[in-house]
Amino acid sequence: MLAIISFVLCISNLASSSALPATSPSPPKSSPLPLVVWHGLGDNYAADGLTMVGKLAQKVNPGTYVHIIRLDEDVSADRGATFFGNLTEQIAQVCEDLAAHPVLSKARAINALGFSQGGQFLRGYVERCNSPSVQNLVTFGSQHNGISRFQDCAATDWLCKAAIGLLRTNTWSTFIQNRLVPAQYYREVNETTGLGGDQYLKYSNFLADINNERAAKNKTYAANIAKLRKFVMYVFEDDTTVIPKESGWFAEVNATTQAMTPLRNRTLYNEDWIGLKKLDEKDGLVFRTAPGPHMELSDEMLEEAFKQYFGPDPEADEMDDWVLVDQEHDRAHIDGSMPQDL
């Protein structure tokens, strides 16, 4: 069964003041890259928690342009799309939206932050299109190696219960794989080989593809992941929503013995199916833990991540062109205020 994934933010520093600190009239020579955020299951782009995340990102790194991905401008429809939809089509839509965005399309690169299932979806974006290209990808509580079972839905969450009801009918049917989002990152394993099961490899609409688990490998996927500067994966220590929680680190967990095979001991890594080994060789692969249950994030944890991975780029020679885009028409900003599309 499935539990709705949401996150609880302890924004104590923001609660005392709704205004962001003023920045210098002259923008810094090197500005932070725009930050793109993809939310998790059961959430929507206009949720208060996501707005707080955007404000915190701008508080830590003034001048950050924040864009929260949405699959529909209607809030209810955007939430519904976290349960129902074809992930291949959803990622293609996001690829088109970001490539055409008046601010993001002008940036030399962007940073990306994925919460829960939004993490593997952003990785899918990197592998499949990556324009604008992602410099640092940070994921919290994601399911990069899939899930083996679901948690319970909340008692009154009928949307969640409807999704799980469909999942129970036939996970690998074309109907389910084209319509039920969590089914598309459900992973069945051959416990003898440790590789994906036959039905999973044959019918998975999403995960088997972006993990390059099928015989025919997509070289572009590996090349795009290897181009990242940092790929940072946070796993929650007490996570009981993501089963197994180590999926957030691409680890394989035997369903019978619970023995864990770390990423670096897996064929996926050693044969470098998606570029993780090459990225690791340049110190770009980062494994982190976060205290507490799934998506219960403190502002301190987020601040640390924002400072370390989303700050001004020390290698940039000059201020990015996107910062100079007219604020009124293209909604760019250099004064630390919230962008209008957040």
TrEMBL record:
Q: What is its EC number?
A: 3.1.2.22
User: Span of the secretion signal?
Assistant: 1-19
Record's keyword terms, sorted: Disulfide bond, Glycoprotein, Hydrolase, Signal
One of this protein's Pfam families, by short name?
Palm_thioest
Query: InterPro entries recorded for this chain?
Result: AB_hydrolase_fold, Palm_thioest
Say if the entry is tagged with keyword Signal.
yes
Which GO MF terms does the UniProt record name?
A: palmitoyl-(protein) hydrolase activity
* SUPFAM superfamilies recorded: alpha/beta-Hydrolases
Entry's family note? Belongs to the palmitoyl-protein thioesterase family.
Q: What is this protein called?
A: Palmitoyl-protein thioesterase 1
